[in-house]
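BUG: 3D viewer hangs when loading the predicted structure for this chain

Environment: internal workstation, default settings.
Expected: structure renders.
Actual: progress bar stalls at 90%.

Input used:
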Amino acid sequence: MTIISRLTSDNERMKLFRNAVFVYIVVRFCSKILLRLYYRGPVLFAKEIGNHWMNGIFRMVKKVPIVKRLINQELGKIMSKIEKDVAPRREGDIIHASLPAKGMKPDEITKHVDDYEKLGHVDFLQGKVSGAVYHGGEELMNVTTEVYRRFAFSNPLHPDVFPGLRKMEAEIVSMVLRMFNGDENSCGTTTSGGTESILMACKAMRDWGREVKGIKQPEMVIPVTAHAAFDKASDYFGIKLLHAPVDPKTGKVNVRAVRRLVNSNTILVRFNFFNYSFIYLFIQILDHFIILISILFFKKKITQFHNY
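Structure tokens produced before the viewer hung:
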């Protein structure tokens, strides 16, 4: 009798445990849905659900052999066009697809480099390219080239071996921090370029959200025209990416959409209040930027944003 009652008691405990787990899962799922509905609004929430289902259907349809074949055909056409525009081949061009059996002499390498240089058709040194090349004239280029030549084979991972390299980086970081009014608690590091800078900014914000605010499912809000590095950061660091629409005529991001997308999991909001080739819109976009800052930073209590 004692054994039977004990078994009955154990069964009841197991049922109670299962019910508790079930209730926990249901409550957590429903709370996520309700929070998303609250922050997004019914229209945007419905669009997200619709896009989610459409993407799922599209992934399944892509696996159908005939559809997969048609998609590959179209992708082949696009890739051919991109290759023709970006990497055109001239008659007589030598393609080095593998290491040569015998090493080249310096003058041979220089000749190949001269040929590569002639492949370009835009004289960027005369200011014919906007937003791709930044230089301050021939004198600065010569100084930069000389400095790079001297440190080209140094390794910043070994500051004890290359103390001068560490000193240069520390001074550059200090200069930038002073430009942005950084205090004694501010720090920084140099990167290889704009893409890595964006990646590091997103990683820093993800870590900040996790350590300071306890955010386990980080999200960032960016306009659809934002740099592709934000998409990379989203994939690399597990940050959910939310896109806000942009007016195709004015270049302004939709304020209401951004306001809806920002929520308690937001670790970063990306803005851009200056465009390379649209200086005539600068004042309008700057005013728009100030409005966005006011709405999001004060009402939503967002303390971090990135401008690139």
